[in-house]
Amino acid sequence: MPHQQELAMLRREIEILMREREQLLRISGAAAMFVAELDSVQLPEPTWDVAEFLAESLNGLSEETLQDALEATRASMEQMQAAS
To answer: What distance in Å separates the CA atoms of residue 47 and residue 27, rounded to the nearest whole number?
Structure first.
């Protein structure tokens, strides 16, 4: 029985991690799309450092992860548009 409980706990933890990954992918994708649309010349100077940090963080993602993020974001946006 303890083995079954451990398996059940691991399944729940994996499900939680997968939901969190999906949410982080949508956030990363939205951030990537946002950065791509930014006109850095028009950004207020106080936001330069955080914009650069965001861009560098996104550039640190693997190509596969960034692609997954963009796809997750596009799918979420399509669902939002279909609902409205």
So the answer is: 19
